Amino acid sequence: MKTVPRTALLLLLAALTLMVLAPAFAAGTPQPVTVTMYAFPNHLPSGAPSKPGPDGNTHDMLVPSDMVVQPGQQVTVKVINYDDMPHSITAPELGLNVIVKGGTAAKEGDPVTPATTTFTFTAPTKSGLYRWFCALPCDDEAGGWDMAKSFDGQDQDGFMAGYIIVN
Ligand SMILES: [Cu+2]
């Protein structure tokens, strides 16, 4: 009778164990992710209107205002700003206070060449909602409505505030 060497059996067992455990380890270290956001003034570059507020006016917006990331994930955020004004992504709980530089135009009313600001942070390991807002005065064409206190904090949600959702 031909016998399988003991070492071969042990190696097989080790390989099977690794196959079972590897996905679990992989799940513990999420792959880095890149999220793209856009800042628009109260109109799109095409001239089409921007997002309307409940007041019926269009407003500056930094969208999408929410993102879903994994606990401990390395997140690179690329913000393309079509507004000639700077904004910020400020999230005290995450230690974030990033200035999103404004686009440039030769003169008032000319098409704006967008500016791109890129930053990276590591999502907290604690699952939850972490709010961000823009700390710079903006939306002046609509009387600064974006900057007014929203139901859940500084600035209007979905315009110049939102959530980094860690789950
Ligand atoms: Cu702003």
List the helices and strands and how they pair.
Layout (H helix, E strand, L loop, with lengths): L5 H23 L4 E8 L20 E3 L3 E3 L4 E8 L5 E5 L4 E5 L14 E8 L5 E6 L27 E6 L1
Parallel strand pairs: 1-4, 3-9
Antiparallel strand pairs: 1-2, 4-7, 5-6, 8-9
The site of copper (II) ion (CU) has 6 residues, from loops.
Structure overview:
The protein is an alpha/beta fold. It has one domain (33-166): Cupredoxins -  blue copper proteins (Immunoglobulin-like). It has 1 helix and 9 strands, in the order αβββββββββ. The strands form 3 sheets. It has a 4-stranded mixed beta sheet with strand order 2-1-4-7, with no helix packed on it. The protein has a 3-stranded mixed beta sheet with strand order 3-9-8, with no helix packed on it. A two-stranded antiparallel ribbon has the order 5-6. β5 and β6 (96-100) form a beta hairpin. It is elongated and about 85 Å long. The N and C termini lie far apart (56 Å). Copper (II) ion (CU) is lined by residues 60, 87, 134, 136, 138, 160.
Distance between the termini: 56 Å
Reported CATH architecture = Sandwich
Low-confidence stretches: none
Extended strand count: 9
Write down the CATH topology. Immunoglobulin-like
- How many helical elements? 1
Main sheet, how many strands, which sense, barrel? 4 strands, mixed
Q: Indicate how many domains the architecture comprises.
A: 1
Categorize the overall geometry.
elongated
- Strands across the major sheet, in which order? 2-1-4-7
pLDDT average, as an integer?
90
Helices and strands: which structural class?
A: alpha/beta
**CATH homology superfamily:** Cupredoxins -  blue copper proteins
| Small-molecule binders | copper (II) ion
The radius of gyration is 23 Å
